[in-house]
Amino acid sequence: MEDKQYESLLQKIKTRQTLNTDVLDEVMHSADIVAVLDEDDITDEDLKWFFSANDKEFLADVLEDADDKLQSRVVHQLDYDDIIKIFSYMPKDEIADILGDLPIGQRKELLNMMKASDSRELRVLLGYRDDTAGGLMTTEYIALYQDLTMYQALAKIREIAPKTEVISTIFVLNRTRQLVGWADLRDILSADPGLTIEDITDSHVITVDPLMDQEEVAQVVRKYDLTALAVVNRRHSLLGVITADDIMDVMVDEQTEDILHMGGVSGQEEIGGPIGVSIKRRLPWLVVNLVTAFIAASAISLFEGVIEQVVALSSIMTIISGMGGNAGSQTLSVAIRGITLGEINLKEDWKLVFKEILLGMLDGALIGLITGIIVSLRYGNAYLGVVTIMAMIGNLIIAGIGGYLIPLILEKIGQDPALSSSIFLTTLTDTFGFFIFLGLAKLFLPLLV
Amino acid sequence: MEDKQYESLLQKIKTRQTLNTDVLDEVMHSADIVAVLDEDDITDEDLKWFFSANDKEFLADVLEDADDKLQSRVVHQLDYDDIIKIFSYMPKDEIADILGDLPIGQRKELLNMMKASDSRELRVLLGYRDDTAGGLMTTEYIALYQDLTMYQALAKIREIAPKTEVISTIFVLNRTRQLVGWADLRDILSADPGLTIEDITDSHVITVDPLMDQEEVAQVVRKYDLTALAVVNRRHSLLGVITADDIMDVMVDEQTEDILHMGGVSGQEEIGGPIGVSIKRRLPWLVVNLVTAFIAASAISLFEGVIEQVVALSSIMTIISGMGGNAGSQTLSVAIRGITLGEINLKEDWKLVFKEILLGMLDGALIGLITGIIVSLRYGNAYLGVVTIMAMIGNLIIAGIGGYLIPLILEKIGQDPALSSSIFLTTLTDTFGFFIFLGLAKLFLPLLV
């Protein structure tokens, strides 16, 4: 997209010039038009004009590419008649997503204004949670009866293809409308016209339940490299189809959620968003962190007498606790990756903790040795160095155990490991780090003073 | 997939029973067969037998679904003749990926054994780095000249479709083989037979350069919801096509890379992998962390005299530094998410740092107040509480500034913000946290003792 087109569109919207959408469609992708509409300069009034004055089929494409925020702004500005017209060009799963974000009263009014068959389909889709297979699926797909001849099949495909999202995968049903397999459009195009669909049906079809969580759905799609995944009920009737582009959106959602959670931010937060949201998403975790910081600090309080006699301990102890936190985070991130990809779970893989213990011993010995030598030289006391080495090894072993087991245990009890693992881990490595180092120092106190 | 089939396949491999692959194909997906081959029980000998004794077209599907590690094990076991036969059923981009991981001598020998046209195509693909558009693209796509009639087009599609990865998007070329647009198979199926491809061509086609980084490629595919993305050279000749399933693999790679990097692990590491790899990926960062831990600890050393007089400071200071680290991580994760999604950059959005400063003040005031009150009561000295509040506010402001600007600056100078941001941030919040708290304590020392 060139900047010229971008500026020109912005100008036209501001000066209320009706658009030649056929030409615009050729030079700008709807995703780029959305970027213009997302500009700060675009007021609600501009949006209202844009979505009322232009071609509805064109607007349907634009609205489909918009994010939730822009979609809800648009729908709040428009007359119901215009909304219904634009919806008539949009796939049902997108409409359901938009309706799902509306207040219940508005949603009902819009549903009542639609064709009975459309609103019935939408009510079914609206019955599923956004983050489940049912919430992701579209009802615009191609399904054919298995007894159709190739000729009949191709005629049917020509007829319904323009209204569907996926055409390369055709789902195959028996006459009681149960899913019996899938066919590849390639085969239909090149098959002997005398054959029926049944002859080219692959009965090995991957299906999911409408209630399956979207993260699991994404794993299934990725594992089998599917372009379309069938959602079926218990009697194996085809309810809808999930397409690859929706899965990519899920993957981005889950990814950003994991990144935010690992940083201690609950739920979605955008960097330019309102400060109130930021406080709401972050403050609770800071308060939880504060409690754990006090727990770690109280480990120090226990040994104030020791610190008073060897004040050098107060700076060395932060190295021990800090390195425990760092080493633990490394294990944690590898473990969370394994859990996210569905590669490890507590029951089968708990034994791998021994590898982390060994790693903690090796890394701890090396890092401890470096630290111990520097400490010995700096304070002129070799015993201080020995205490440092021992404490470092101990804390890095604990870090490895915690970094591996904490996320697996949280996963096992149904918690999101990305969200709360690091809090438990830091509490563990800080508290234990202070405790083991100052405890050892107290034990060897006569040698240190 | 049922466990029975899984067990039965494992059994058959172990007892060297040649498989009826037509039947197996119906009941097990190749991704599930890969899961069986990934079992610890499967030896190199088993793999060698499996990939020599069975139908090569079937084996090509299985090998395509295998991960890098299994692919390289298989290729190392097999005779070159068998490899070449299996390759003949695989898409070129997959073959190039496998060849790219082989030692150069082996790669050359295999290329020399292939058909000249195949090896020429593969040499071109091998010329691109794995993580670029050129490395991702396939050369199996449908491209048609714009002057073909619908009848000619359909005949051509029927002929080449079985060998291509994508069929719903058809790329359109002029007679000098430049890409002029794309056509939708739906339109070709339903168009008037008298029209030519040019009549239904959409000239607004999204293209990328073969050298574009895979993360950017993924952003383009997601933004425009593409099922196939065209890779072109400077004179707009079509070099290859990137498909949605390859983009999903990229997204998973980038996601897991970000998670590992944020935890301080450089490069890929699997939880069950060899301990040597773990040490190699983790130890360098631990050493870097150790240096920064010493920097923070030396801020404490400066004030050892103060701590000797008010030993309570030694436990409170860890709360100040720890909370700075926590608050900074929150800002950091929101910023990294924004950078990953391409939503923010240093030049345009540096002003948002003021929001983070404000957040630091507000959160700092509240968290500081709670901490200050507890400290005052615990040690019976209100001034100690006041020092705590001031230090907490100061450190949370610095945390907000650092958490926001450090990743943006690293991105700007071409570094991966997920990998090194947290090290700089922790150094900042630890060092500054100790410094401001102990510095203030020194200033108000007469009131504290």
UniProtKB/TrEMBL annotation, chains A, B:
InterPro entries reported in the protein's UniProt record: CBS_dom (IPR000644), CBS_dom_sf (IPR046342), Mg_transptr_MgtE_intracell_dom (IPR006668), MgtE_N_sf (IPR038076), MgtE_transporter (IPR006669), SLC41_membr_dom (IPR006667), SLC41_membr_dom_sf (IPR036739)
Keywords from the named record: CBS domain, Cell membrane, Magnesium, Membrane, Metal-binding, Transmembrane, Transmembrane helix, Transport
Cellular component per GO, a single term: plasma membrane
Transmembrane segments annotated in the record for this chain: 283-303, 357-377, 383-410, 422-445
Membrane topology: Multi-pass membrane protein
Cell compartment(s), UniProt: Cell membrane; Membrane
Gene Ontology molecular-function annotations: magnesium ion transmembrane transporter activity; metal ion binding
Domain CBS, chain residue ranges per copy: 200-257
Main location: membrane
SMART domains hit by this protein: CBS, MgtE_N
CDD domains per UniProt: CBS_pair_Mg_transporter
Subunit architecture: Homodimer.
NCBIfam families reported for this sequence: mgtE (TIGR00400)
Role: Acts as a magnesium transporter.
Family note: Belongs to the SLC41A transporter family.
Protein name: Magnesium transporter MgtE
The organism of origin for this protein: Pseudoramibacter porci
